[in-house]
Amino acid sequence: MKKIHNSKFIELECKKCGQKQHTFNKPASTISCKGCEEVLATPGASHPTLTKNTKVVKKEENKKDKEEQKEWEIWNWMM
After folding, report:
1. What residues make up the domain containing 41?
2. What is the per-residue DSSP string for the chain?
3. 67-77 pLDDT, tens per residue?
4. pTM of the shown model
5. Any residues with CB less than 8 A from the CB of 79 and at least 6 apart, and which?
6. 55 in a domain, yes or no?
7. What value does the CA radius of gyration of the chain take, rounded to a whole number of Å?
8. Is residue 67 part of a domain?
9. Domain count within the chain
């Protein structure tokens, strides 16, 4: 059986000091700012729980998402 990983990277920005860092979209431990030690996110059931001092800057798209989008666009064009 093939194991499928759905983990993606997200970029978080600390509103307090402006430091940016990358983390998984499903972290297993508390994420702290490397600049000022402020807690940015805590683990959640399906996604991280962000604190008020955190801003999500960028989410990574994986290759499969892009391929599915392209197939959908081609299918719509054919109809």
Report:
1. 9-78
2. --------EEEEEETTT--EEEEESS-SS-EE-TTT--EEEE--SSS-EE-TTEEEEEEPPPHHHHHHHHHHHHHHHH-
3. 666 665 665 55
4. 0.62
5. none
6. yes
7. 16
8. yes
9. 1
